[in-house]
Amino acid sequence: MMPDVNPPNPIVFVHGLFGSFAAPETFDVLAPASCSAPDLDGYGASAERHGITVAGQVATLRAHIVSHHPGQRVHLVGHSIGAVYAFAVADAVPDLVASVTAVEGNFTLADAFWSRSIAALDEEHARKVINERLSDPVAFLAGDGIPPTDHHLAQATAALAYQPWRTIWESAIAIVDATSSPGYLAMVRRVFDRTKVFLLAGERSAGGWHVPEWARQAATASATVEGAGHMMMLEHPESVGRALGRLVQRQAALEGDVRTSR
Prior knowledge:
Elements: E1 4-5, E2 11-14, H1 24-29, E3 35-36, H2 54-68, E4 74-79, H3 82-92, E5 97-103, H4 113-119, H5 123-134, H6 137-142, H7 150-161, H8 165-179, H9 182-194, E6 196-202, H10 213-218, E7 221-225, H11 232-235, H12 237-255, E8 258-260
């Protein structure tokens, strides 16, 4: 469970290319902290929204923080491309952010292999390639080394249905444009300089995460979820919650606001 913090900072989960990152099992482990996982533009309740940009997602996240957690600084937890949005929010409105956790988040184009491949496609080919991915939960799980149990298949099916093909295509284009910019890593460095940043990886996928050495050295702390791959929140949601809880407790201890531990 979370440490007894006065008051506990809310935790806002920023999903990646597929799925919502809103696992009740993770939220339960992190109680009593308030957890939320907003639908980004083009996803879930906003699935019909087109013209996706990094700036637009930052505006959506900022509006969510202000409306759902007024007057509070939040811990942003960004998975995969969601970390790009989380870093951008922390850079734009640092007063709203207590920390950023990059869950195998994109630092360079090396972490956006599939995004690069589909961003380069025209609309017709992108629709075909992405819909093939969205219609095959077994292959989706196999690509991350997750066994196709009934539970995992249900979770994968829900994650793949969470967004239409166009959202994937437009998001990939936006992320490739952002992370290929010379100013992207400069922005990320600014966040590291003034905000506590944590790194969280899956045991199976950590070796393929291209974290710059300066970021590893500058991170407040790092953790690994044992027995998990890139889609760790689908595979081991409770373990993700426990790992995040320990990282947030580290944050609270550094700020001297932990009253007692459980």
